[in-house]
Design goal:
Chain A has helices at residues 10-33, 37-47, 50-64, 67-72, 74-101, 110-113, 115-118, 132-159, 174-201, 206-218, 221-242, 250-262, 273-281, 287-291, 293-297, 304-312, 318-322, 329-333, 340-349, 378-382, 384-397, 414-418, 422-438, 449-458, 468-477, 506-515, 542-556, 569-576, 586-593, 602-606; strands spanning 372-375, 401-403, 443-446, 464-467, 489-493, 517-519, 563-566, 582-585. Chain A is mainly α and 613 residues long. Chain B has 111 residues and is mainly alpha-helical. Chain B is globular and about 55 Å long. Classes of the chains: A mainly alpha (613), B mainly alpha (111). Chain A binds chain B through residues 318, 322, 351-359, 361-363, 378-379, 381-382, 408-411, 413, 415-416, 419, 421, 428, 533, 535, 538-543, 570, 573-574, and chain B through 33, 46, 48-49, 51-53, 77-78, 80-84, 87-88, 92, 94, 96-97, 100, 103-104, 107.
């Protein structure tokens, strides 16, 4: 028996594997060939550098062990890890085991997979861990047991997804369903095939040996063994053939993505091949569904998982593309870290092929030089108490500032980018850039997180860009503002563009703690809910915006605060109309907390009475 | 002809049958809140671009509904999509999407 190394049942597996490798080779080489020369350069430099080691480490921790999933939910993490890491171990240990039995060290790829059919080592008993082959038999059964435990959990997840931290699960395509059925059958079939063979010839580990002997008592294992090996091979074949057309394409593509990211290749403005690789890396796990506020208020095809599916199938729908708040919560939840916002924006751009725009009507501004430049932004002009508070603070702290958009606002350009009109946004950027550079400022302070993000990321200014939360905290820490702490309970709402967009979570919290008692809301930091007012979504109805806003308010009011404080004029304006309690911007409460014995500034006398402190 | 100091004005009747209402129909189809605009002009009053140029969304909406939007292409290009009009609108009209829909309509309907 030891010499047997081939049977016709390996053909379905072998052919499917060759087909799969062929399809992947064509797809991947196509993507990589389509990279820009800059990206190809990054690849060349990255391959033989330490970055590849970091990538390997990430593949191990994320693709195999699923660290991020474990963080979200232990059951979900274990379920997925048992499949991914379990299968990996099965292949690895199986290969080592097969070397022990084979006379040559190069085996055909199917040999380790169907090893127990080819090799019947009767010498080794069930729990004999004293010999090397015995240890391997034990290990292989243990790994198979781990895989089967994952399968049981996967079946439970179908009925009780909330145990796995998922409120909702995804709808799947025909290919997805075929592939998952094959995947779920692979391991029980392997168990049966090995058990029947063990029942027939003895051998096997603690699982297959015992089960085999049990089956041999009442089943004709000598007739069942061979067809089960066929069934096992066919299931493997079906899985491999459907893999490139199903959600399971994420398995190989995610590994490629991790390497490319570690080499420094990022999604650029407009569509790029790395974005396409991200699309194929989406496992349609549905974690983004629970994150998506738009999905929370209506059952539709808006969330990333379905949007990415439309991109992958080339069936992009205009309304789906634009029906997203770009709040970025899905990105934080996504175990793969797919840049959903960048993808969405690049797809939006495809709808404006011929769009023109000319902003040459904008007046040439009178530039005054100052240490600090202040850009209030459109939304702050609609919530004047914010800009007035900031001007008051500047005056009180004795700052030499220049109010860049004092005479009516000029948009920063980010709303145009969000709508997919990058070309036009560039024109606005040029105008504003001249204004900022001309003012020779060292620090640019913005009140609107939307402006803050675009100034930092797209303007290439080479000066410090701070949101007013950061700047106010700096002034307080430098002792330029003298504040009195109150005992009022304050909850902080993280604006999407400031928190998830720019990573500013701590500064507003430190600042509020110096002024009042900061109490937590239900959804904090990366988990915060969009206020619904986002400029990212052009499709959503005002009714749905209202529902999202209510979700955000509900989450904020959970610990009965006295004031909701936010750091975005848009959030302030959106939230304040629907709460009985006061909504204030962080700059307003700073002004409210300034020591009263100091002389009031002109701004304070005139118009600031925003926060009843 | 003797000039008596009078002249005859051009016909100012709005002829819905003759006017080109394709754009209005297209916008209604893609952004239903176009229907609920009451032409109050809040959008125009708050418009960032309107601060520097003769961009008037209120007028534009009225003219589109009548089928008389002639300068729509050059006007709409001036919009910065900043979203102030939408935030200020008392009726919840999705003005940003109306502007984007006009953009698409210009491309698709060949205005």
């Amino acid at each position: 028996m030891k010499d047997l190394t081939f049977d016709f049942f390996v053909v379905p597996f072998a052919l499917a594997l060759i087909a799969l490798l062929g399809i992947l080779a064509v797809k991947y080489s196509g993507w990589i060939r389509g990279f820009s020369s800059e990206d190809k350069n990054l690849m060349r430099k990255g391959i033989f550098s330490v970055k590849s080691l970091y990538a390997l480490k990430e593949v191990f921790t994320e693709s195999l062990l699923h660290r991020k999933m474990f963080k979200r939910n232990i059951l979900l993490g274990y379920m997925h890890m048992s499949f991914a890491f379990g299968w990996f171990l099965l292949i690895l240990t199986g290969n080592i085991e097969s070397r022990i039995y084979s006379r040559v060290h190069i085996n055909p790829p199917y040999y380790p997979i169907f090893l127990k059919y080819f090799v019947h080592d009767k010498r080794v008993l069930t729990f004999e861990l004293t010999s090397v082959p015995g240890i391997f038999r034990f290990l292989m059964d243990l790994i198979l047991f781990m895989l089967l435990s994952g399968l049981v959990l996967a079946l439970i997840k179908r009925a009780r997804s909330n145990w796995f931290g998922l409120k909702r699960t995804t709808r799947h395509t025909v290919f997805d369903r075929t592939a998952i059925t094959a995947l779920w059958l692979i391991f029980p079939l392997r168990l049966l095939a090995e058990s029947f063979t063990a029942g027939q010839y003895l051998g096997g580990g603690f699982l297959t040996n015992n089960l085999g002997r049990l089956f041999a008592n009442f089943l004709p294992v000598e007739y069942l063994s061979y067809p089960t090996w066929w069934a096992y091979s066919i299931m493997l074949g079906i899985f491999f053939i459907t893999l490139p057309y199903s959600r399971f394409m994420h398995i190989p593509t995610e590994v490629l993505l991790i390497f490319l990211r570690n080499w420094g290749i990022k999604p650029s403005k407009g569509s790029s091949n790395i974005s396409e690789i991200e699309v194929y890396s989406c496992p349609r796990c549905g974690v983004c569904l629970d994150a998506c506020p738009v999905y929370a208020v209506k059952q539709n095809s808006t969330p990333p998982v379905y949007f990415l599916q439309t991109v992958r199938n080339n069936k992009i729908k205009e309304n789906v593309t634009f029906d997203c708040l770009l709040c970025g919560k899905c990105q934080e939840y996504c175990p793969i870290g797919i840049h959903n916002n960048a993808l969405r924006i690049s797809q939006r751009a495809a709808f404006f092929n011929n769009s023109n725009g000319s902003f040459d009507y904008l007046p040439q501004p009178l530039i005054r030089k100052a240490d600090v430049a202040y850009f209030a932004g459109c939304m702050s002009h609609l919530t004047p108490s914010i800009k007035k508070s900031m001007l008051s603070v500047f005056t009180k702290a004795g700052i030499d500032y220049n109010f860049l958009d004092a005479d009516g606002s000029i948009c920063c350009g980010r709303p145009l980018i969000m709508a997919g009109k990058e070309k036009q946004a560039r024109l606005l950027r040029e105008h504003n850039r001249n204004l900022i550079i001309g003012s020779s400022c060292k620090v640019l302070v913005t009140s609107c997180p939307i402006c803050n993000k675009v100034f930092k990321e797209d303007y290439n200014l080479n000066i410090e860009v701070l949101h007013h939360t950061q700047y106010l905290l700096r002034l307080v820490e430098e002792g330029k503002l003298n504040m009195v702490k109150s005992a009022r309970k304050v909850v902080y709402h993280d604006p999407c563009e400031l928190g998830r967009g720019s990573g500013i979570y701590e500064e507003p919290r430190i600042l509020i703690s110096k002024i009042a008692e900061l109490i937590p809301g239900a959804n904090e930091r990366t988990d915060s809910i969009c206020c619904g007012g986002s400029l990212g979504n052009t499709e959503i109805s005002s009714g749905k915006r209202h529902e999202i806003k209510n979700l955000a308010i509900e989450s904020l009011l959970i610990n009965q605060p006295e004031i909701i404080v936010t750091a975005c004029p848009l959030c302030k304006k959106t939230l304040q109309n629907d709460t009985e309690i006061q909504v204030a911007d962080i700059s307003e409460i700073v002004v409210g907390a300034l020591a009263k014995n100091e002389p009031a500034t002109t701004h304070q006398k005139m118009e600031i009475n925003p926060v009843l402190w | 002809m003797i000039d008596f100091g009078y002249n005859i004005n051009a016909d100012r009747q709005i002829d819905y049958d003759r006017n080109d209402r394709r754009l209005a129909r297209y916008i209604l189809e893609h952004e239903p809140t176009f229907r609920i605009c009451i032409s109050c002009g809040t959008c125009t009053a708050t418009c960032s671009a309107g601060n520097f140029t003769y961009l008037n969304l209120r007028e534009m909406i009225v003219l589109i509904k009548r089928g008389e939007a002639k300068n729509i292409k050059s006007d709409i290009e001036k919009c910065m999509l900043c979203g102030k009009c939408q935030l200020a609108c008392p009726r919840g009209v999705n003005t940003r999407n109306i502007i984007l829909t006009i953009n698409r309509a210009i491309e698709r309907l060949d205005f």
